[in-house]
Write the structure tokens for this entry.
Amino acid sequence: MHITRRDFTKQASLIALGSLACAHLTKANTSYTVRKGDTLGHIAQRHGVSTAKLRHANSLSSDLIGVGQKLKIPAQDGATTAVTSARNPYLVQAGDTLGRIALTHGISVSQLKRANNLSSDVIHIGQTLYTPAIVSTEDLLSHVRAATSKIAVRRQHWQRIIVHHSAIKYGNAKKYDAAHRRRGMQNGLAYHFLIGNGIDSGDGEIEIGTRWTKQLLGGHLKSYQLNLSAIGICLVGNFEQTQPSKKQLAAFTQLMDWLQGDVLKKNTKFAGHRELKGEQTICPGKHFPLAAMHARYD
Ligand SMILES: [Zn+2]
């Protein structure tokens, strides 16, 4: 989502603009330049590695880092991702590399190779690769189920579920709600659900918007017609630059599974914001695993 940017604090805006300015860099997954407000812990978390591993990779003797400092980001620790035997097919496209596919599916290259019994990094256009599903055994949804049990969901009304990124690394439901109200949205927070990244709300924490509890139309799309029938789920972060965290993806899939399978009880269309005609956006960012989610929800 892009409409919120100018409403944030000057610092956040500057950081967001900085992020956008370097969004085209493809090396974002192997090196990282420290920005104002960063801590080693946050950087480690955002890249799916431990603080100790990050410290070690950069020969740091303490957690002190400075703005502008370049950090090497080590490969993700495979052991931290829970992977099931469930597999989703992915068709290799022109320009794909194992690294890119792994990144956009939220897994490591070694996990991807293991899932496909590959002994080298050579892949071919048209080849079918299987991407292991990301799961979390932790129930991140209990409060959402509880809140929803108290309302009458307008089941016939909702036809689509649209995923967004917030395009900035900061923020939570309260902050975005205030920003959206300042933008003239009387119903506040434009999304029905917001999934935190561990900075201003919990990592993988699902915040429920009043548009869900009151079953109101969304404010997350340019098209009014689409807003009437589309549930909006937003993940906090700029996924042009970083990946969603594993817990954010776990929360997202739990929420989607439940919405599609239990709540709406019909085939609800799924899409990334940029896939809708006329929306003119890169949302939810190139690092959001849209292909994997389509394999799961189409
Ligand atoms: Zn969006």
Summary: The chain has three domains: 5-72, 83-134, 142-297.
